[in-house]
Design a protein that fits this description.
The complex is a heterodimer of chains A (267) and B (173). With 267 residues, chain A is mostly helical. Chain A is 73% helix and 1% strand. In chain A, strand 1 and strand 2 form a beta hairpin. The C terminus of chain B is likely disordered. The chains are: A mainly alpha (267), B mainly alpha (173).
């Protein structure tokens, strides 16, 4: 993509014909303030707000014309997305699908559009999801949500008991399992998107050396990146729903076990 | 540059995500989800109504079929009764006709016998008169009327009682 970094790389490639290409710029930001933990990647934030605008403005325009009758125009698209996510949510969390529908829709739409933003041939555009802060933010949100639901459903003692299943020594493994979820969620998405963008930068740079033979890989890779962007958004949403479903499902199972135990004791 | 650097951007991104979550819930998935649920409920109600109407139609059709069958059965009963009655009437009419015919035949027979007896009596009287008249002419004088009559009658009775052979060889009374 002709983002600024890509153009720098391409320019370097043309000027240094025999010399090796400069290092691929991973994690570079064209607008950043501060240093270390206090740094703020304003480019990521601006592009994130661009995504938010892309989501918000059409919805604000169209939402006034939403009808319960026969849907028209863009409402068909919105209904398709919401219905698709709703059906997935129902499979994962059952009757609680309605309460987590907004979260699932937001995750899916926001990640999908963020993934696709980096594929647009516009300078300075890159996917917000190629910044670990974005993916980790959503991972942390899902983690907090899942923990809150688990504690609300099972209670503090119940959740502690759950963490000691099947035997008390497993508490350490279970805690690591819980903590690894936001990390795996974040890094999976981040890694896929960053890798895709790196591939695009490399293919762009190679175009200057052998354009005839390398014209084909670029559109193929762009098509594949569209597919990857969709799949990654879907995976993030489905895993989040699965974690939510596990948190609530275990609670129901433990309730059932408790009820059964009480009945047996009563008998 | 650390490619996986975590910094203050994380908080901004969490905030941004919460904002877009609130917005999506408020303006997109909330209303659309509600619309989908209402539509689903409406379709379910329409399907239930259609199913109920279908069941009612089926019940009505069944009732009609039963009524038609019942009407056919009743018609058959009526038809059978009418046939039986017609048969009975025909038999009665036939019996009555037979009786009437027998009566008429008997009456005709009696009339014939009566006519024949009457003809016999007339013939007998005529023969007597003829005989008396012939005898008077032959013997030239008149006999006692009562005695003649008695004599001739007895003679005729004897003649009639005696079997005779007709000209065709047939025995006459």
């Amino acid at each position: 993509m002709p983002s600024m970094t890509a153009m720098i790389v391409a320019q370097a490639a043309t000027t240094t014909s025999t010399a090796s290409l400069p290092a691929i710029p991973i994690g570079e930001h064209w607008l950043q303030t501060g240093h270390g933990l206090l740094a703020i990647n304003w480019d990521t934030i601006i592009l994130t707000w661009l995504i938010i605008a892309i989501i918000v403005i059409p919805v604000l325009v169209v939402s006034r014309t939403f009808t319960t009758g026969v849907p028209r125009g863009v409402q068909n698209l919105y209904e398709f997305v919401v219905e698709f996510v709703s059906s997935q949510a129902e499979q994962s969390v059952g009757e609680r699908a309605t309460s987590v529908l907004s979260i699932a829709v937001t995750l899916f739409v926001f990640i999908l559009l963020s993934n696709y933003l980096g594929l647009l041939p516009i300078p300075y555009f890159r996917s917000p999801t190629s910044d670990l802060n974005t993916t980790l933010a959503m991972g942390i949100f899902v983690f907090i949500l899942v923990q809150w639901l688990a504690f609300r459903e099972r209670g503090f003692v119940g959740q502690l008991k759950h963490l000691t299943q099947p035997y008390p020594p497993f508490i350490l493994i279970n805690i690591i399992d819980e903590l690894s979820r936001p990390v795996t969620l974040s890094f999976r998405l981040f890694g896929n998107i960053v890798a895709g963008e790196i591939m695009i930068v490399i293919l762009q740079a190679l175009l200057y050396h052998a354009p005839i033979f390398l014209l084909l890989p670029m559109p193929i890779w762009l098509g594949f990146s569209f597919f990857v962007g969709l799949i990654q958004a879907f995976i993030f949403m489905m895993l989040s729903l699965a974690y939510i479903g596990l948190a609530t499902e275990h609670a129901e199972m433990s309730h059932n076990h408790a009820d059964r135990g009480a009945e047996e004791e009563h008998a | 540059m650390n490619p996986v650097s975590i910094n203050l951007t994380l908080l901004f991104q969490i905030l941004s995500f919460l904002i877009v979550l609130w917005f999506v819930n408020r303006y997109l998935s909330g209303p659309i989800g509600k619309i989908l649920r209402e539509r689903q409920e409406r379709i379910r109600a329409a399907l239930a109504a259609a199913e109920q109407a279908r069941a009612e139609a089926a019940a009505s059709q069944q009732a009609q079929i039963e009524e038609i069958a019942q009407a056919r059965a009743e018609a058959q009963v009526i038809l059978n009764a009418a046939r039986e009655m017609a048969e009975r009437l025909r038999e009665e009419q036939l019996d009555q006709t037979r009786l009437e015919a027998a009566r008429l035949i008997e009456q005709a027979r009696k009339a014939i016998v009566s006519e024949r007896e009457q003809a016999k009596q007339q013939l007998r009287a005529y023969v007597i008169d003829l005989t008396i008249d012939a005898t008077r002419r032959i013997i030239g004088r008149s006999l006692d009327t009562a005695a003649q009559h008695e004599l001739i009658t007895s003679t005729i009775e004897e003649v009639l009682a005696t079997p005779r052979v007709s000209h065709g060889g047939r025995m006459d009374a």
